[in-house]
Amino acid sequence: MVDINRYSRQILFQPIGEEGQKKIIGSSVVIVGMGALGTVISNHLVRAGIGSLRMIDRDLVELSNLQRQTLYYEEDAIQNLPKAIAAKKRLQSINSSVKIDAIISDVNVSNAEELLTGFDVIVDGTDNFMTRYLINDVSVKHGIPWVYGGAVSSRGMFAVFIPGKTPCYRCLFPHIPTGLGETCDTIGVLSPITDIIGSFQAVEVLKLLVGAERNPYLEQFDIWYHSNFQMDISGGSNPECPTCVKKNFEFLDRTSQQQIQFAILCGRDTVQVLPRKRRTFDFEMMAQRLKKVGKVEFNSFLLRFFPDEKVTLVLFKDGRMLVHGTNDIIDAKNYYAKFVGE
User: Fold this and answer.
1) Neighbours of 194 (CB within 10 A)
2) What's the pTM value of the predicted model, to 2 decimals?
3) What is the pLDDT of residues 268-295, one digit of tens each?
């Protein structure tokens, strides 16, 4: 039995009140990605008293995460705990009345609908575009609202997408960005911006759960260079949108040209990552970016990058990458997302 009095200060907030708190207690939320954003969002939601929380993440806790991923401790990194497991352990000690489901998995075309449906809200705690388009497909297909968020360097943004009421993510971003993707692993990130964006996302989730008016803007902040930007997305629907208008869920389609292909090269301890759509890279520009975090060698044909002692990444002009040192597709996908981006 939930002791509603523990939420007394939240109940005193008039837009929520006792009825709103009961809705929150009866709600269910799924968070995709338990990095910096996911840890902030889950912390707020569990303390707010949501009934059920599913957290999905494919990665382990590392010491370099602790600068910004606020649920984790040094002991988690030393023990090589999966992020979802470490987060559950911490959150359960904060509010034992919340049902918490920790899943160690990569959200992909094979499992997205199974993992993300049946919830009141989906929340984006990821760091890559492909997963966001996948979330958007699930959201539109199954009528589940979702809260988008992203943060890198000193800037971040967030927005709310409600099927049938707002434009969908693909209305605003019809194509996966090409070229070099900026990630926390290549240009860094400040902890305060992840706290800010994650907190805004958590507020928007609470609004959705109690039936309050959502934020109509896509908002962006840069906390180092003192700027903020609001774009009203209410009228941003694309009448030709493949997803919310034509119901063509390409990112849930295994045969779609949007999918990235992964292949284990037999006997070589290597995974090949092959985007279906060709990409062209400027190796000199990429080397300037990557040399900040590891050793780089390149010629006119390929670029070799050594991010750690475990693997070597070999990138070709057309976007194909070989990940030497592993035969684990999830590992390869992590390296591709971290250092190549989308």
Assistant:
1) 27
2) 0.82
3) 688 878 766 656 778 888 899 899 889 9
